[in-house]
Design goal:
Layout lengths: L3 E5 L4 H12 L3 E6 L16 E5 L5 H7 L5 E4 L6 H6 L1 H22 L3 E7 L28 H20 L2 E7 L2 E2 L8 H11 L4 E2 L6 E2 L2 E2 H13 L6 E5 L6 E2 H12 L6 E2 L16 H7 L7 H22 L10
Parallel strand pairs: 1-2, 1-4, 2-3, 4-5, 5-6, 6-11, 7-10, 8-13
Antiparallel strand pairs: 9-12
Helix pairs in contact: 1-7, 2-4, 4-5, 6-8, 6-10, 8-10
């Protein structure tokens, strides 16, 4: 029988791209999602080739039943996005903490042999060294700030899966994703927000000074790293940074590149004050993933932004043509 793969959060941004790649590799794929942040529309190209299970990761019985007969679990379900950290910290903690424990317990109950857990660069808070290696301390700088509710669930998730795996005999692989971008990532992130302003000719206000830097990584490269970590023996029971260590851009540089791609002149207005808790810099050390997993991001920021800009431009034009203004998804 073919290997059965369960992907939690498989209707989301990273999840839907992962599902497409697994289907391309002829895996038997089941998706578990409640479609609150993700959308089954993201799976339109493969909907006839997968099993979709509507369910809430907080419900143990649902995830246990969905996991039955699975060989590998990719656990991506979480509440991501800075706006949601502040508006729904309770929900984010429930989805993360209860969801992580439910998946780990269901792994034991169903005798599943491998889990891939997607963690985040957020676990480093504001790193003290660059490029940042996996052995950098994991930090919650201020428990009173709901900004850190998300990273708390990622840190605890890493502990949960390594601990349960060690005790109950399954392998756990953890990847810390750094600044993934691409089609279908929603509207609550910097790149689609900038593209929306370009397409709609809105005022280009930017939180921060523009000197903050990121090493953005196109989604296809992130997916390659996730799959390698989940299926290669070298990925078992270890943690890996995934991202692009070759290109680091200040936000002002990102804006200039988008201006060139769109053909529109931009005069950004900076607020100077950064969002609370936002790191001034992100640059992962991916040498371990490169050595052990054969991971090597190939898509340049310029090429990835061209693809992303074209997709979002078409999406915005379609929305404007077919949707009442009160229902624009970026207003939600």
């Amino acid at each position: 029988m073919p290997e059965r793969i369960l992907v939690t959060g498989g209707a989301g941004f990273v999840g839907s791209h992962l599902v497409e790649k697994l289907v391309e590799k002829r895996k038997e794929v089941a998706v578990f999602d409640n479609s609150w942040r993700g959308s089954q529309k993201n799976l339109n190209d493969v909907k006839d080739k997968i099993e979709f299970i509507e369910g809430d990761i907080r419900d143990y019985t649902s995830i246990k039943n969905a996991m039955k007969d699975s060989d590998v679990v990719f656990h991506l379900a979480s509440l991501q996005g800075t706006r949601f950290f502040y508006e729904y910290p309770d929900l984010g903690l429930e989805v993360g903490l209860i969801g992580n424990l439910n998946v780990a317990k269901a792994m034991k109950e169903n005798n599943v042999k491998r889990v891939l857990f997607t963690s985040s660069s957020e676990v480093y808070s504001q790193p003290s060294t660059f490029p940042t290696q996996e052995n950098h301390p994991l930090i919650i700088p201020d428990p009173k700030n709901p900004r850190w509710s998300y990273s708390a669930t990622k840190i605890s998730g890493e502990v949960i899966f390594f601990s349960y795996g060690r005790k109950y005999g399954f392998d756990a692989s953890v990847v810390r994703i750094h600044n993934a971008y691409g089609q279908r990532m929603g509207w609550q992130h910097v790149i689609p927000e900038f593209i929306k302003r370009l397409v709609l000719d809105e005022e280009f206000t930017v939180q921060g000074s523009g000197s903050e830097s990121r090493s953005f990584c196109y989604i296809d490269d992130i997916i390659d790293g996730i799959i390698n970590a989940a299926f290669k023996d070298e990925g078992a029971n270890d943690v890996f940074n995934l991202g692009n260590d070759r290109e680091e851009y200040k936000i002002i540089g990102l804006i200039k590149m988008l201006s060139q791609i769109s053909g529109k002149k931009i005069k950004p207005v900076f607020s100077v004050v950064r969002p609370e808790g936002s790191a001034t810099r992100r640059l992962p050390d991916i040498s371990k993933a490169r050595k052990l997993l054969g991971y090597d991001p190939k898509i340049s920021l310029r090429d990835g932004l061209k693809l992303t800009y074209s997709w979002y431009k078409r999406e915005i034009e379609s929305i404007l043509k077919n949707t009442d203004a009160k229902e624009y998804p970026w207003l939600k």
